[in-house]
Structures are given as C-alpha cells and as structure tokens.
Fold this sequence. Notes:
It holds the Pfam family ApeP-like. The protein is mainly beta. Helices cover about 10% and strands about 45% of the residues. The strands form two sheets. It has a six-stranded antiparallel β-sheet, covered by helices on one side. Strands 3-4 form a two-stranded antiparallel ribbon. β3 (about 45) and β4 (about 50) form a beta hairpin.
Amino acid sequence: MNxxxxxxxxxxxHREPFLMVDQVLTIDDEHVSTCFHIKPECxxxxxxxxxxxxxxxxxxxxxxxxxxxxxxxEDDLEGCSAKLIGFISAxxxxxxxxxxxxGATITTKAYIKSRLNTDQFTxxxxxxxxxxxxxxxxxxxxxLVIQELKEHSK
Length: 154
C-alpha cells in the first residue's frame, strides 16, 4: 500500500488547526511512522519554535493511528468502515531534549508495547519518538484508550 496517498484526515478526528500529522510514512500492526511539517501558522508555534505541547499532541496523534488502524477494514482508504474516539489515559514518562523550529519537518515513530482489547474498547501502552534529521527531540510512553462509536438504532 502506498501511504503517501493515504489522507490522514479520514482516519483522525482532528482538523486544522489542531491536526499535527501530515502524512503516514509506514504502518503495520505494531509500528507507525509519520511526518509533520511545522508551518508558521501552527497553533503550537511559540516565537518560532514548535512548543512542548505541540510535540506531545503530535506524538498522541501518531500513537492513536497505530491503534485505530485495527478498527478499519484493510482495503479502506477512505476511513468509512469505523468511527473512533480516543483518549490519552496517561503519559507515563516523557523526555523532551529539544524543540523543532518552525519550518522544520519532524518524523514520529511509535511502537506498541502492550495492548488489551475488550468488546468495548482498546487500551494500550506505546513508546514514541520524535526526531528531526535523525536527532531525537522527544521520547515518551503514552497510554491510550480507543473506543469504536457504534451507531444506535432508534
């Protein structure tokens, strides 16, 4: 599958100006990598720097895409086969070494550490790393809860 043509907006509920992922680079059942180009109009632009809150939001959106993937049909490139809602239940640890400047493109990689699926939701723990040109900016462990929104009949 060519992920360069995958429209991330069809799979994440976030919209401008709060969408912090531009493109999925790779994704499978255990790993995802994304990129994000930091524009001057970014809401997390703080005096020319992509601030810490923006980096955490980028990490969370990247992490949710790996868990959310399992809810969608394999051939669904339009995001029509499921509607999801997700929450950060905990940020277990975080290390921010530096922030990227506006104009930079960051790459974010996430790896599932553990996952629990129930009939109502999925809980998982994910390691996430943000880099710019190979230099690590952030590492963290995030716990997420993802739930599929079921249509209720009247």
